[in-house]
């Protein structure tokens, strides 16, 4: 099972706005009519029941949404780019990988149909009608589309089951799952027979619930030993746990305490889940001989337990009925599945209209809208400077430059434009 993937997603860039003018018979002074560019497509991650693993995201590492189309004359706006919808299994957690390796949770897609926009498409650029003013009736400038967001995201699938079976390797978890449901896990006598979680459905009369075998719990599992926390996290979504202990162990009580220690060290909320204890392999003669001692140890510790043989089926039905009863009690009392992560709303800071910084001997104007401006065909450098200056005045950039100490002849840079400063009163 491929239950983790790290990929790069890139939303579509916005389409460019157009520089255009009306050219109609008997209309000698047609105004600007360049259309706006279309918005770039978003990258959307959506949970779907038809998908059961993240295998498909191991073969391709970069995913791109469609770019918005450019605008054209006659105020024809460009078409918006199509969203790229990435389908993932229900139970997938989406995280953004930041520089330095830190992860920020974007969404927990716990139900079919849940979705999140992982990367937002760029805005379409404005056509030249947006740049008209009382002093500039025929703007020969337009705006290029904004770049789409680009992110590295991590997809992490966590199985959603009502009941999880935990315990040391070779405690008989696979045999119990096979006996209780129609699942057919691989079964053998050596450790780590199960190298991935296995799901099954337990039917009890007209009622049923999903049960999962959680492999990989040995001492040090919380640090990644054995199969480690790659599978410990699957237990996070379960309502209750069946803690299976091998009766052939030298000390079943010590095994149980060791597993619980790993749960605490991995996540305290996991250790707080309701546990139903079951001692397995009571069909073995050596276990029968020690059974009374086991019961004294377990009951003496104040622990209620089931004594079963997953191989012969003895006590399995009673154990599954006890699990169903506990599930129904939790539902009746309104108890909810522990969520592994609290969803947090992180409002984005408002982007300033522009910023002026002095870098070395030049002043750098950072203005996202202005940086994307481009000139139409046939525009002279002088006319372009004049057109750009109109926008600087409207935004208040010229006043900010004057306040920042810009003097005659200082170099000014904004995006791909460079010019020499002259005071606002002398520009025109």
Short description:
This protein folds into 3 domains: 4-157, Spo0b-associated Gtp-binding Protein, Chain: A; 163-332, Rossmann fold, CATH 3.40.50.300; 355-426, GMP Synthetase, Chain A, domain 3. Helix content is 21%, strand content 25%.
Describe what this molecule looks like in 3D.
The protein folds into 3 domains: 4-157, Spo0b-associated Gtp-binding Protein, Chain: A (Distorted Sandwich), CATH 2.70.210; 163-332, Rossmann fold (3-Layer(aba) Sandwich), CATH 3.40.50.300; 355-426, GTP-binding protein OBG, C-terminal domain (GMP Synthetase, Chain A, domain 3, 2-Layer Sandwich). It has 9 helices and 20 strands. The protein has helices at 173-180, 229-232, 252-266, 268-271, 285-300, 316-332, 368-371, 381-395, 397-403; strands at 4-10, 43-47, 62-64, 84-88, 92-97, 103-109, 115-119, 141-143, 150-157, 163-166, 198-204, 207-213, 240-246, 274-280, 305-307, 355-359, 362-366, 373-375, 411-414, 417-420. The termini are far apart. The model is unreliable at 190-195, 220-228 and 337-347 (pLDDT under 50).
Task: Show the helix and strand layout.
Layout: E1 4-10, E2 43-47, E3 62-64, E4 84-88, E5 92-97, E6 103-109, E7 115-119, E8 141-143, E9 150-157, E10 163-166, H1 173-180, E11 198-204, E12 207-213, H2 229-232, E13 240-246, H3 252-266, H4 268-271, E14 274-280, H5 285-300, E15 305-307, H6 316-332, E16 355-359, E17 362-366, H7 368-371, E18 373-375, H8 381-395, H9 397-403, E19 411-414, E20 417-420
